[in-house]
Design a protein that fits this description.
heterodimer; A: 1032 residues; alpha/beta; FAD/NAD(P)-binding domain; Alpha-Beta Plaits; 7 domains; five-stranded parallel sheet; 26 helices; disordered C terminus; B: 389 residues; Rossmann fold; 3 domains; four-stranded parallel sheet; 17 helices; 8% strand
């Protein structure tokens, strides 16, 4: 490397939002060197601006920020923020990318992130992270958890503008400020590129039909996210921009900028707004239960997993109204700055109502630089300005070697952004498999200190979590208290203990103060324990010396109104954690070899795609299909709404599967049993009369779904009533009676959105529109009616909904309990099916005479899906679909390690979506298969053999099959397989003799903790030693 | 007690007729209600375009109902409709149906007379064709000849209405001062037909259009300047269907460009606070928001203030779509609301440049207490005043 500005890596990921982060992490885990390039001053993207995420209302930053640190710490990831792409040349396998690093005017390597410069800077500017609703300084850190945690100086700096002021340079003790920094050019050589530039929100200011920018109390939904957020402009208080008062009546307006063909709008549906508005309503009511919320909407598109229940939850809240009408902001009322909103109801006509605040449900636009990006990367954009996708490979761009993930593919939500990132990872793996591991680096930790001879020296770190904790709990007081506890030699507080610099400081403190126990009092170990354990390793002590006290979920959030009591409880929790930590033991972790082989269950498009994506990355794959033929339920589909020939696609996939030397197919396959664990599964498959045992490292479950068999609307009793899939079969066969028919009625939501199946089947609206369009081609005179509850043609399929309407397909909305009725009848001598349905606009019951009735029967989990529960010990959702590990950030993983999911077994979805998800599952599976060995937790159960009475109670209690009897010289004894054990401790409770113990949760540890709860005084240090080393 | 369920039997033959008559965009409607929300009718009474559309889809339109005559074709719903439904086309189609059956319900009753007058005399006001150029008497208005650069297409209201004749006279004076070469067709001019077409009298419109086009061609017309935005719209859009393409400018556009070119000398001043009302057919339908304002800004002493609803969101006076001929009860007149808006700005003069707007505002001024508080003037009257001696 002659030129030090040329850098070699395997992959460049463009865009540091959640999708880019996930792509970088997956690729890095697979042994690729990754450059993560972001144009803003930090990674995090739009997700970092969100308060919570639907439908679980997880704190957005809390679940995302651990990934920032993971990226930052990963030896295979290099983060380049504040960096623009200049141009790209070369080809797949050998791209040269020229970049410009914009000057931050800060020497990153010297900056400690202390923010003294920010304090002294005299220039106030509106804060971009807070949507310009509150001020920040011309030099500032983008947000507290930013990575890198380094400020930047924006163009409002007095020195940069007029060469006045340079106070920051004088106050910075590390000489980290360099106001003469110039843009820096550099060149990357990479084999592949993943584009994840995300999206822009629709700007309602441009057209100004809602008064945004004119009336201060009209805000966008992203503004509102910041208002809700504890790190937002008003520290999580919902205040009106005009007068900083609490709004009491809030209106949400749907589809701002979306689903409209008027100039300046987007014809597509932005796919996320319905749910995020419901989330905001729920959160606003959480903040202040007296808020009266009105949601003005058209169709409610609750088409994702658990969205329907989420919608019901929002709608059922007291003081919340959902009004089916688009609304408009008529004017601002003088003095009050309230807003007059007009809307229309079916029975009462047009109303004008006063609101204190209006939230615009703004849609998703392509990234602002999409055109430029497309030009530089030489890729095509589709008609709306998003990335042109290939329906067969939905993460490929038009240029080989360049892949796309996240919302640049079109409007979509976080899980899809995440799994398409993993999918892009799989594609890169297939392209660059030959160089995997060549440039990668291993993480280096300092040697572990032996502390067995040391007295416990506990360090306590308390987190404010922005205002999440600090607003309720008196953190300084708890710090002071912590220093009075036995064995505590250090206590300190931080705004965000999880930020990169804070974590680094903990590691340093461990070394400097010779800490051998660390207690972090902050949020939940569910999201943050891995991060802090890693910090302990950095500090040179065993990671199991870490203990976490949850003073957020268990304290500040639930006791937000009782500050004093909460502070007392925080002290109790800290004391208990300190007490427990004294008994903690260093635990070894286990290294497991990985069998680089995958088992894929289910041979539909998802399963086949997953199998191919894994095989293309160089892994051996066993594909088990229960039927005689591959293809699954998709064999009954003819084409997609967009025109993809499904049968040709299946033929192509099947051909590739049979041709691939690394794929072994089992037909008529039944999984007999599964044993083993991540990296080392053993599965017995019965196939065509014989049973084989397969050893595999991972499993991908793609067991699919089935069409609901209706009992409604004369189905099964009258030959003229059929399902959409049956209609597709007739269409494919030429459809004699379809040609002859003069009138046809489709009924949506048959078997979906009912008390028994309280979910939306997602695909039926698209399917109905698709079949209606095909029917119109076949028989243009055919009168088609689609009776629907909400047309859920999300994303770009909205265009087809409009096209169908344009072609004269008539849509009639019905609302249960007033369902349509179907009866055989005669009309003018013609035998017909008379369908009656109440039309809300006409206010009467329409009688439609149909020759044929088509039922959009819902999608139900396949029987195979339920079987997987038994075999792989994976959980199902209440609706019987696979339950992923985390709906947002681990959308294709199961909680059980080494098992992944994709396709309709997870939730109903289109073939293209299923294939994208399948690639995502393959990408995630590859992060395991490409490793030589895995590490298993040390916090597992162990049997004291001498106390075991061989009763077997533990064996039946274990849900992971981790315990078995083994013959020993002293008879049959229970033995725990530490690799399978998840450390849930169920066996502990069942064991009659206490022979089985869970390491890291031993009786001594737990009793100490309990004792600390019950007898606080016993844990106070002697006067003399109190306060030693306390720092604040 | 609950109302009994109304049973509706669709009549698809009628739906087909609506469709054929130009209403087939009705199927695009996804019933979001936006049209009703932005419709000026819902400020004075209750009217649902959404319902009208919905009925038309199922052939349930009631031609005996006055509802289908309400739309003033202001275009506000079309501007806002997310689905791209052109509601005016649907209203027009429904009126074609009613016209075909000879049913003119309620306030639309005067349309019979209007149609008769248009057929017989080429104007909707019941005046004789022979009197069409009477307004120009004593003004030395040249007859159009091929030497003229512009045909001044006067329009029925400016030719006959006593109040608006003064505007026509002002226009002639201003054009003369600017040295524009123009002439008029006199009694050969016929109504442009824009508004009667919106009333569903398609055949009558076509007859009027053919008559005008024939005259234009015979007389060698290439460029036209029009006083009425409705004539402007007809020539700019409707007449194109006959495969002719005359260059047409609205007087405000022409005057603005003349002023820019220094051909309009503002000798006097107009020291008053004024507000400008955008006629639907000049602004919303044809995008000409700025020329009148540019012109007013050049007037010495004049202070232009805007009403809250201006430009694309201008509130209709209520006169389009043939409403100018129909009976509108006092309490249902949009022009009353608009005049009140104008007075709220503190303006002494409400300026516009459309015959329907001026007529309606004059009417509202007299009937709703505007007299003595605000004046209603046509744009060209102001220009006439400041460019005159």
């Amino acid at each position: 490397m002659a030129d030090k500005n040329v850098h070699f890596a395997d992959v460049m990921v463009v865009g540091g939002g959640i999708s880019g982060i996930q792509a970088a992490l997956d690729l890095a885990a697979c042994g690729f060197r990754v450059y993560l390039v972001e144009r803003s001053p930090t990674i995090g993207g739009k997700m970092a601006q969100l308060d919570k995420t639907f439908p679980t209302n997880d704190c957005s930053m809390c679940i995302e920020s651990p990934k920032f640190i993971e990226c930052d710490r990963h030896p295979n990831i290099e983060i380049l923020t504040y960096t623009e792409i200049d141009d790209v040349s070369g080809q797949a396998g050998d791209f040269t990318v020229r970049l410009t690093r914009k000057p931050r005017y800060i020497r990153e390597e010297r900056c400690t992130g202390c923010t003294t410069c920010v304090e002294y800077c005299p220039v106030e500017v509106p804060d971009p992270f807070n949507q310009f609703l509150s001020p920040n300084k011309a030099v500032h850190i983008y947000f507290s958890q930013a990575v890198p945690l380094v400020p930047y100086i924006d163009e409002n700096c007095l020195y940069l503008r007029e060469k006045k002021c340079s106070i920051c340079t004088t106050v910075c003790k590390n000489q980290a400020i360099d106001l003469n920094q110039r843009p820096q050019k550099l060149e990357l050589n990479v084999g592949a590129i993943v584009l994840a530039p995300g999206y822009e929100i629709f700007n309602p200011r441009l057209r100004n039909d809602y008064g945004y920018g004119l009336y201060p109390n009209v805000v966008t939904s992203l503004d509102f996210e910041r208002l809700l957020c504890s790190t937002g402009p008003f520290q999580g208080e919902i205040l009106r921009p005009s007068d900083r008062r609490h709004p009491h009546r809030i209106a949400w307006l749907h589809c701002v900028g979306s689903r409209q063909v008027i100039p300046g709008g987007n014809s597509y549906c932005s796919a996320v707004c319905c749910s995020y508005i419901q989330k905001q309503v729920i959160l606003a009511k959480d903040h202040d239960s007296s808020i009266e919320a009105a949601v003005f909407h058209n169709d409610i598109r609750a088409f994702g997993k658990d969205f329907e229940r989420f919608y019901q939850r929002a709608a059922a809240l007291p003081g919340v109204r959902f009004v089916r009408s688009y609304a408009t902001v008529v004017r601002e009322l003088p003095n009050s700055h309230n807003l007059a909103v007009r809307y229309s109801t079916f029975d009462q006509g047009v109303h004008e109502e006063e609101f204190d605040m209006v939230v615009l449900g703004v849609g998703l636009n392509p990234p602002s630089a999409a055109g430029e990006l497309a030009r530089k990367f030489g890729i095509d954009l589709e008609a709306h300005g998003f990335c042109q996708l290939n329906e067969r490979n939905p993460v490929a761009t038009s240029r080989p070697g360049i892949f796309v993930s996240g919302a640049f593919r079109g409007p979509l939500d976080i899980p899809e952004s995440v799994f398409t990132a993993s999918a892009a990872g799989a594609e890169v793996g297939a392209l660059l498999g030959y160089r995997r591991g060549k440039l990668s680096r291993e993480r280096q930790y300092p040697p572990e200190r032996d502390v067995s001879a040391e007295e416990p020296r506990v360090g306590v770190f308390l987190c404010h979590c922005g205002a999440n904790i600090g607003r309720v709990v008196n953190v300084p007081e708890v710090v002071k208290y912590a220093t009075t506890l036995k064995n505590v030699v250090h206590a300190e507080e931080g705004l965000f203990i999880c930020s990169t610099d804070a974590a680094q400081k903990i590691a340093n403190t461990i070394r400097e103060k010779k800490l051998n126990r660390v207690v972090v009092a902050a949020c939940t170990p569910r999201t943050h324990e891995p991060l802090f354990r890693d910090t302990l390793r950095e500090g040179g002590i065993n990671q199991y010396f870490f203990e976490m006290a949850n003073i957020r979920e268990h304290c500040s959030w639930v006791h937000s109104k009782q500050k004093e009591e909460a502070t007392r409880k925080a002290k109790d929790l800290v004391r208990m954690s300190v007490a427990r930590s004294l008994k903690l033991e260093p635990l070894p972790e286990y290294e497991l070899e990985v069998t680089p082989v995958a088992l894929v269950v289910g041979g539909g498009p998802a399963g086949m795609t997953a199998a191919l994506a894994l095989a293309d990355q160089g892994f051996e794959v066993h594909l088990a299909e229960k039927e005689n033929d591959l293809g699954g339920a998709a064999r009954r589909l003819r084409s997609s709404l967009e025109g993809l020939d499904v049968q040709a696609l299946i033929r192509e996939l099947v051909y590739k599967i049979y041709r691939h030397p690394l794929v072994h197919v089992y037909h008529q396959a039944r999984l007999v049993d599964v044993s083993g664990y991540v990296g080392n599964f053993h599965t017995r498959i019965e196939s065509e009369g014989r049973v084989v045992t397969i050893n595999h490292g991972v499993a991908v479950l793609a067991t699919g779904a089935e069409e609901y068999r209706p009992r409604e609307y004369l189905y099964g009793q009258d030959q003229r009533v059929m399902t959409q899939l049956e209609l597709e079969a007739e269409l494919a066969a030429g459809g004699e009676r379809l040609r002859r028919a003069s009138s046809l009625v489709m009924i949506q939501c048959v078997g979906s959105r009912t008390p028994e199946r309280n979910y939306c089947s997602r695909v039926c609206c698209r399917q109905a529109v698709k079949n209606a369009l095909r029917l119109k081609e076949l028989n243009p005179g055919l009168r088609i009616f689609i009776l629907y509850r909400d047309m859920r043609t999300y994303g770009f399929s909205e265009d087809y909904y409009r096209l169908a309407a344009e072609k004269g397909v008539l849509f009639v909305r019905y609302e249960p309990p007033e369902n349509p009725e179907v009866a055989a009848a005669e009309s003018e001598g013609r035998k017909v099916l008379r369908v009656s349905v109440t039309d809300p606009v006409l206010g009467g019951r329409l009688a439609l005479d149909a020759d044929l009735v088509v039922l959009s029967a819902g999608v139900v989990p396949s029987t195979g899906t339920a079987e997987m529960v038994r075999l792989f010990k994976v959980p199902l959702s209440p609706d019987g679909f696979f339950q992923e590990a985390h709906v947002k950030l681990r959308p294709v993983d199961f909680a059980a390690e080494g098992v992944f999911l994709c396709g309709s077994g997870h939730y109903p979805k289109t073939i293209t979506e299923a294939m994208a998800q399948a690639r995502g599952a393959a990408g995630r599976a590859a992060t395991i298969l490409s490793r030589r060995a895995l590490v298993a937790s040390g916090a597992v159960c162990q049997v004291k053999e001498e106390d075991c009475v061989s009763c077997g109670a533990c064996i039946s209690a274990c849900s992971y099959g981790a315990i078995e009897f083994r013959s020993t010289p002293r008879g049959k004894k229970a033995v725990v397989n530490p690799v399978l054990c998840k450390g849930d401790g169920l066996c502990n409770a069942k064991c009659p003799t206490g022979a089985i113990v869970l390491k890291h949760f031993t009786d001594e540890e737990v009793f100490n903790q309990l004792e600390a709860a019950l007898a606080p005084e016993k844990w106070l240090a002697e006067e003399s030693s109190a306060g030693e080393g306390a720092a604040r | 007690m609950e109302a009994p369920v109304q049973h509706l039997e669709p009549i698809f033959e009628i739906a087909q007729e609506v469709s054929t008559a130009g209403g087939r965009v009705n199927t695009l409607c996804f019933q979001c209600g936006k049209c009703d929300v932005v419709c000026p009718w819902n400020r004075v009474s209750r009217f649902s375009m959404r319902r009208l559309i919905r009925q038309s889809i199922f052939g349930l339109s009631e031609i005996e109902s006055e509802e289908l005559w309400r739309c003033s074709t202001c275009g506000n719903c079309t501007r806002e409709c997310p689905r791209g439904v052109t509601q005016i086309d649907i209203a027009r189609a429904l009126r074609r149906l009613a016209t075909a059956y000879g049913v003119f319900a309620g306030g639309a009753r005067p349309l019979r007379t209007v149609r008769g007058s248009l057929q017989a005399e080429g104007n909707p006001l019941g005046f004789a064709r022979a009197q069409r150029a009477a307004w120009a008497a004593g003004l030395e208005v040249p007859e159009f000849s091929e030497e003229c650069e512009y045909l001044l297409f006067v329009g029925c209201y400016y030719a006959y209405d006593p109040r608006l004749k003064k505007v026509a006279a002002a226009a002639v004076r201003v054009l003369g001062r600017a040295g524009v070469s123009f002439g008029i067709l006199g009694q050969e001019e016929s109504c442009c037909g824009e508004s009667i077409r919106k009333c569903g009298s398609e055949d009558l419109f076509r007859a009027l259009a053919r008559q005008n086009i024939k005259t234009f061609i015979d007389r060698g017309v290439r460029k036209m300047v029009v006083l009425s935005p409705h004539c402007y719209h007809a020539f700019k859009h409707d007449y194109r269907e006959f495969m002719v393409n005359f260059e047409v400018v609205h007087l405000s556009e022409l005057l603005a460009s003349l002023a820019q070119a220094g051909r309009l000398e503002m000798k006097g001043a107009f020291p008053a606070r004024v507000t400008f009302h955008d006629p639907c057919y000049l602004g919303r339908h044809n995008g000409l928001f700025e020329p009148p304002r540019e012109l007013l800004r050049l007037v010495p002493g004049l202070e232009l203030v805007e009403m809250a609803e201006n430009r694309a969101s201008s509130l209709c006076c209520g006169g389009g779509g043939g409403r100018i001929w129909m009976d509108t009860p006092r309490r249902e007149r949009f022009s009353d609301l608009r005049l009140a808006q104008a007075m709220e700005t503190g303006a002494q003069v409400l300026i516009s440049c459309c015959p329907y707007c001026i007529s309606n505002f004059e009417d509202s001024r007299i009937n709703s207490g505007g007299e003595g508080r605000i004046e209603v003037r046509d744009l060209v009257e102001i220009i006439d005043q400041v460019t005159g001696n």
